[in-house]
Amino acid sequence: MQIILAILIGGLFGFVLHRAGAANPQNIINMQRLKDFHLIKVILFAIGFSSLILFLLLSLGLIDEGHISVKTSYIGVLIGGAIFGLGFAIGGYCPGTCLVGAGGGRKDALFFILGGLLGALLFTLSYGFLKSTFLFDKIAGGKTTLADTGVSKFPALIDGIPSIVVAGIIAIAFMLIAWKLPTSYKGKT
Question: C-alpha angle 87/92/96, rounded to 5°?
Fold first, then answer.
């Protein structure tokens, strides 16, 4: 049953990405060049809304906090994120949008899928060497959250404030920014 639910949710997510225009790399490139704010509005609102719902359900006890997993923060994650962002800005695809693009018939998306698989293979092959370098030095203790989630195994950077408060403020800020952003930049280019 879980696999069917995962396929349904993934299919729905892909459909929404396609409808929002995220399967077209030119839309993503225009967003990152700050020419077209349509996608960033969709992304900010989706992050804000889903975060607010998630933390509201957590605070009401409708989602077991044991299902929350906090990944360890490493220096290499910051470097990898910068490389990922650079590729995202240049190519106009990320792992999710290239799959949606391929599903929508874009042949250029296949090159990004192959590039991602090649990158994963190279990382796997070099992991033995990389694991002993500074790239795996933990940041802020590793598995740290911004606010107190109530799960004792994850220390918080902001102690004593419930996560629903911090998540609520951030979520509402994201949704307000999405609402107030214009659809496109009206300045000179």
Answer: 90
- For the chain, what is the mean pLDDT? 84
Q: Of the candidates 40, 75, 70, 50, which has an alpha carbon nearest to the alpha carbon of residue 147?
A: 70
The pLDDT of residue 24 is above 60: yes
Tell me the C-alpha distance between 171 and 130, whole Å.
36
Return the axis-axis angle of helices 95-103 and 108-130, rounded to nearest 10°. 150
Average pLDDT score over residue span 31-39? 87
**Using CA atoms, how far apart are residues 28 and 94, in angstroms rounded to an integer?**
9
Question: How long a stretch of residues is the chain?
Answer: 189
- Tokens 């408060």 correspond to 165
The residues, any chain, with a CB within 8 Å of residue 126's CB and separated by 6 or more, are none
At 11 the three-state DSSP class reads helix
> Cα separation of 159 and 134, whole Å?
28
Q: Whole-angstrom Cα distance, residue 171 to residue 45?
A: 8
CA dist., res. 5 & res. 42, Å (int): 24
